[in-house]
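#struct-help
A.M.: can someone run this one for me? Single chain, 193 residues.
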Amino acid sequence: MTLLALYRHTRTSWNEAGRLQGRADIPALDSALAKLGRQKIPTPYDAWPWFTSPLTRTRQTATALGLEPLPDAALIETHWGDYEGKTLDDLSHLGDFLENESRGLDLQPPNGESPRQVQDRLKPWLRLRAAAGVNCGAMSHKGVIRAILALAYDWPMLGKPPVKLDWACLHVFRLEADGLPRPEQMNIPLVPR
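D.P.: on it. Structure tokens below:
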């Protein structure tokens, strides 16, 4: 059995403004990184190799937590296409957004990527991790973590999620031999350094 720990990058100026970041390479806030510098990933997860999205905010988060980032393109955030940089308030005025949102896993922004496509992008990476048989962590993004959560719980991304995730916590999944994630333990808090 291979375990995969997931952690979302720390806050950015676009998070604070409620903007969809997607592939925009927005750095983490200095204040958020300073706060993380007083914390760490709990044992045993801190000794595992930690892969990161290639975006700056994930690598900064990993480094602030004392981890050696191993960038991997598979972990990049959902491509929000024409929605990128917009707030939910901006999008709520678009009739097609409300209809699109009701599609769950198949919500696809114009010129963007659906959660189902994110899952398809992640499946080969998850199979590689399972085949390697080495417990590891991934410093990634909300869209990527939600896509893995949906796979783990067979959740169509409609209605409430099967578990409420605390984005300041670690979420651990076990990977089946075929790479399919299964829930192990959610919402594991960071610990003081």
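A.M.: thanks! Strands lie at 2-8, 39-40, 50-52, 69-71, 136-140, 169-175, 181-189, 191-192.
D.P.: also worth noting: Helices lie at 13-17, 30-36, 56-64, 88-92, 95-101, 115-132, 142-153.
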